[in-house]
């Protein structure tokens, strides 16, 4: 097998390690994922998974928060803990000489966090501040409102990742420990080690620190009810202290495992990505000069994720910009992509693979995507043909399936008090 | 074809040549991926602007993506994308720069684009008008962010005379009134080979790449570029303060001190001091490696975040051609007053001003900076950025030796710089006090 050809090994406890050697810098990137994302939050206590991500690295059974900080800071290492819908992720880059020490600390944090009460209270204040900052950010307000309208609060994708001030105030140490105990399990561990280290040595080092870990068998959430949506829905969040208005416009679409994923990927690239934002960028930014940013993004996840169009416009242009989005979408649904557009987007996406896989973090992120969706270790080799085989008609077909302005959900947040249809 | 004025191999692996039209070319072969990157740098930024024309450099940068004599407006899109490539540009106080990164076979096209951009952009009046609203939209998007708004006010308060005082994006009224001829005039005054540095890094052969450079740039004529006006900022004689009262949810504090330029002997000791106070960031403004600094054992993190007063702190010392600012930024925890936050920040800064740092802190800061300088060179795009960035503000040769100069910084030097640079009279305090 040519291409990236990473080495993958499943540990005796069910955890997975994927390693790839690179030699650009004398450094190694580690990304440790566990299946402890916000899908496991309950509707009654949104934000618990996020709270775990803000406290998991603040002390273990062996080291206090200050000791962990000292050990990592002394090596110039920033350990970033984050959470998304499905994954709790710990990521960092260290010098090769520090890999054994840093991997040991990362494993300790994943397996045996202590959630000291004093740290829980400190981080609670930080999380509440983050929520308050989001409330004052038109972009964040627009996207959170869109997700809640598209998915509803019964669906995990419809809930705010950081929860609410009220839910965050109720979280205690025991809840964090319990969430960790249930959802952070070796069977859900995926560790990527990418850098100037032989894969066999990386896997050996991972085995020595993770192999003794047992317990917890968290079931992945892969199904949730979508609210019925019969017509177009629009919502305005007036934020009159702001200068610019953010638009979030979207649809629920497909899961990553869907057979038509590559057609969706190309459709999204043509619509709102290629060059300066695809057709949307051509119309709204280049031709009409209405927005500094406009693009679309497709988040095909373990469950059907959204296709979202985003734009930042002056309040005077909100109605016109939403109208232009409608127009571009209708054109794509009616006529599909041109042959030239499809050729260009295929060339771009295939050609951009070496860039995507240039840095250690780029490779590690890619390997974790491959692992999460079960794409196969040779996906980078197969991907060009998967894209090449997509036809113009297939892209047109997915545009018809995914897009219907008459069933769109449209949210506007910012200094705008008008009405939207 | 232009003759080469000078050929040098001034540092291992980096080829430096100057065409006889004045274009400086830096080439480094890096064969770790089948990619090449080009950065084309100009010595023009918002410091070169006068009242009425603030924001012109940045607007010119936007216009330089809109068609040239030999690249029709509608054919720009696709030249680099065909090779899976990425392109972009940015403008800041000292510089304007353009970049492409794509598979190595795109090198000729990247150089073609940059040569066209240097002398042959169109500035169609309709495109200038259309871009006016795009840039005003960019400005308004920035104003949505209270921290950015505060940063703008703080800088304008800290500087009285130097043109670093106005924001790179410009003031709104200038963006509303500037004309096509203002833009085109600025472009012609500053865009010439003798005011530029071209950097190529990647899976290329140095001699082949140089031939390609000469093919595209050799015939461009040099010109008399505008003199970079420079006012020396008079010494600040007392603390300055600015408070923004605006609706919002969160309070922010920024404390700035006048900082040395990148060539000043105080720059690296202050970089070390910043690492002690807020964790090391490295010196790459562009790096894809832009994770938060290792800061949980840093002094300000301890004093503010671990005490619950703040939810986030950061420090910023950026390499600039002339003296700019060293800024501490703090996000107050919800419910905590800015008075308490400010007292805690000033207490820590006074402590380090009066007592300096310890040998242990120095060692940790150096470890951090050494690691960050490795991490931020993780791609050809980043490596090329650093060479061009340093050449534009000082000399590219500063960059490869940065680590060893940081290693030579002493506890005493950091102490002296803390005492000299963190004087209360040199301080500007900015507050965003939200009206809830």
Q: Report the uncertain regions of chain B.
A: 1-10
Question: Can you tell me the overall shape of chain A?
Answer: globular
* Global geometry of chain B: globular
Under CATH, the homologous superfamily of the largest domain in chain A reads: Metalloenzyme, LuxS/M16 peptidase-like
Number of strands of chain A: 11
Number of helices of chain A: 16
Number of domains of chain A: 2
Major sheet attributes of chain A: 6 strands, mixed
Helix/strand/pairing class of chain B, anyone? alpha+beta
Q: How far from one another are the termini of chain A?
A: 53 Å
Total strands of chain B:
12
How far apart are the first and last residues' alpha carbons of chain B, in Å? 66 Å
Order of H and E elements of chain A = EEEHHEEHHHHHEHEEHHEEHHHHHHE
The CATH topology of the largest domain in chain B comes to Cytochrome Bc1 Complex, Chain A, domain 1
Report on this model:
The complex is a heterodimer of chains A (421) and B (436). Chain A has 421 residues and is an alpha+beta fold. Chain A has two domains: 204 residues, Metalloenzyme, LuxS/M16 peptidase-like (Cytochrome Bc1 Complex, Chain A, domain 1, 2-Layer Sandwich), CATH 3.30.830.10; 182 residues, Metalloenzyme, LuxS/M16 peptidase-like (Cytochrome Bc1 Complex, Chain A, domain 1, 2-Layer Sandwich), CATH 3.30.830. Helices cover 45% and strands 17% of the residues of chain A. Chain A has a six-stranded mixed sheet with strand order 1-2-6-3-5-4, sandwiched between helices. A five-stranded mixed sheet of chain A has the order 7-11-8-10-9, sandwiched between helices. The mean pLDDT of chain A is 96. Chain B folds into two domains: 214 residues, Cytochrome Bc1 Complex, Chain A, domain 1; 196 residues, Metalloenzyme, LuxS/M16 peptidase-like (Cytochrome Bc1 Complex, Chain A, domain 1). In chain B, helix 9 runs antiparallel to helix 10. Chain B has 436 residues and is of the alpha+beta class. In chain B, the strands form two sheets. Chain B has a seven-stranded mixed sheet with strand order 1-2-3-7-4-6-5, sandwiched between helices. Chain B has 14 helices and twelve strands. In chain B, strand 10 and strand 11 form a beta hairpin. Chains A and B meet through helix 2, strand 5, helix 4, helix 10 and strand 9 of A and strand 6, helix 3 and helix 11 of B.
């Amino acid at each position: 097998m040519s291409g990236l050809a990473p080495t993958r090994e499943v540990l005796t406890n069910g955890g997975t390690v994927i390693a790839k050697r690179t030699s650009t810098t004398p450094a190694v990137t580690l990304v440790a994922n566990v299946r402890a994302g916000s899908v496991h939050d309950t509707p009654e206590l949104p934000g618990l998974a996020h709270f775990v991500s803000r406290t998991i690295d603040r002390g273990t059974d062996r080291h206090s928060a200050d000791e962990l900080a000292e050990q990592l800071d002394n090596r110039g290492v920033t350990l970033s803990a984050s959470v998304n819908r499905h994954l709790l992720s710990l990521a960092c880059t260290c010098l090769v000489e520090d890999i054994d020490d840093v991997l040991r600390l990362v494993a300790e944090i994943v397996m045996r966090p202590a959630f000291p009460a004093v740290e829980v209270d400190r981080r609670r204040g930080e999380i509440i501040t983050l929520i308050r900052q989001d409330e004052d950010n038109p972009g964040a307000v627009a996207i959170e409102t869109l997700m809640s309208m598209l998915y509803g609060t019964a669906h995990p994708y419809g809930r705010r990742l950081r929860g609410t001030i009220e839910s965050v105030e109720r979280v205690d140490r025991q809840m964090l420990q319990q969430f960790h105990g249930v959802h952070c399990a070796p069977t859900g561990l995926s560790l990527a080690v990418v850098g100037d280290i032989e894969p066999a040595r990386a896997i050996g080092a991972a085995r020595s620190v993770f192999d003794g870990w047992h317990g917890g068998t968290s079931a992945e959430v892969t199904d949730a009810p979508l609210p019925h949506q019969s017509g177009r829905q629009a919502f305005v969040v007036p934020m009159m202290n702001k200068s610019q208005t953010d638009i979030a416009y979207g649809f629920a679409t497909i899961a990553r495992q869907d057979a038509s994923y590559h057609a969706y990927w190309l459709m999204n690239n043509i619509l709102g990505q290629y060059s300066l934002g695809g057709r949307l960028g051509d119309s709204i930014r280049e031709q009409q000069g209405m927005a500094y940013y406009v693009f679309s993004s497709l988040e095909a996840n373990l469950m059907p994720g959204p296709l979202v169009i985003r734009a930042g416009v002056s309040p005077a242009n909100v109605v016109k910009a939403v109208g232009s989005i409608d127009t571009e979408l209708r054109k794509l649904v009616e006529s599909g992509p041109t042959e030239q557009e499809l050729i260009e987007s295929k060339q771009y996406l295939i050609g951009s693979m070496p860039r995507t896989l240039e840095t250690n973090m780029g490779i590690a992120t890619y390997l974790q995507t491959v692992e999460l969706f079960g794409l196969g270790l040779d996906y980078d080799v197969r991907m060009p043909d998967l894209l090449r085989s997509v036809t113009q008609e297939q892209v047109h077909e997915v545009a018809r399936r995914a897009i219907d302005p008459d069933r769109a959900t449209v949210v506007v947040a910012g200094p705008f008090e008008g009405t939207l249809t | 074809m232009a003759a080469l004025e000078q050929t040098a191999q001034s540092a291992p692996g980096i080829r430096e040549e100057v065409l006889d039209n004045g274009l400086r070319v830096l080439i480094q072969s890096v064969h770790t991926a089948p990619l090449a990157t080009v950065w084309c740098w100009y010595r023009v930024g918002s410091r070169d602007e006068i009242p009425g024309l603030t924001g012109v450099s940045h607007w010119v940068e936007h216009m330089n993506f809109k068609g040239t004599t030999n690249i029709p407006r509608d054919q720009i899109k696709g030249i680099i994308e065909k090779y899976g490539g990425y392109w972009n540009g940015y403008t800041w106080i000292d510089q304007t720069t353009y970049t492409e990164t794509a598979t190595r076979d795109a090198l000729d096209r990247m150089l073609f684009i940059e040569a066209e951009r240097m002398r042959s952009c169109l500035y169609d009046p309709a495109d200038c008008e259309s871009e006016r609203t795009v840039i005003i939209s960019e400005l308004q998007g920035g104003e949505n962010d209270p921290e950015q708004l505060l940063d703008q006010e703080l800088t304008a308060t800290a500087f009285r005379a130097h043109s670093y005082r106005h924001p790179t994006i410009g003031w709104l009224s200038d963006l509303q009134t500037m004309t096509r001829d203002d833009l085109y005039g600025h472009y012609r005054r500053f865009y010439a080979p003798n005011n530029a540095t071209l950097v190529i890094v990647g899976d290329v052969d140095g001699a082949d790449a140089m031939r390609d450079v000469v093919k595209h740039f050799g015939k461009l004529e040099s010109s008399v570029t505008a003199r970079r006006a420079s006012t020396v900022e008079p010494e600040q004689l007392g603390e300055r303060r600015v408070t923004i009262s605006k609706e919002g949810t969160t309070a922010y504090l920024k404390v700035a001190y006048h900082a040395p330029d990148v060539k000043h002997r105080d720059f690296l000791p202050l970089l070390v001091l910043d690492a002690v106070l807020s964790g090391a960031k490295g010196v790459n403004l562009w790096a894809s490696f832009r994770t938060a600094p290792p800061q949980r054992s840093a002094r300000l993190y301890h004093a503010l975040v671990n005490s619950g007063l703040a939810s986030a702190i950061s420090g910023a010392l950026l390499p600039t051609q002339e003296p700019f600012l060293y800024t501490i930024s703090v996000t107050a925890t919800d419910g905590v007053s800015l008075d308490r936050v400010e007292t805690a920040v000033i207490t820590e800064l006074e402590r380090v001003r009066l007592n300096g740092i310890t040998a242990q802190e120095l060692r940790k800061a150096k470890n951090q900076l050494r690691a960050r300088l490795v991490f931020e060179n993780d791609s050809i795009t980043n490596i090329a950025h650093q060479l061009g960035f340093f050449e534009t503000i000082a000399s590219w040769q500063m960059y490869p030796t940065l680590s060893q100069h940081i290693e030579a910084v002493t506890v005493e030097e950091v102490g002296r710089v803390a005492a000299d640079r963190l004087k209360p009279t040199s301080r500007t305090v900015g507050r965003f006090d939200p009206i809830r």
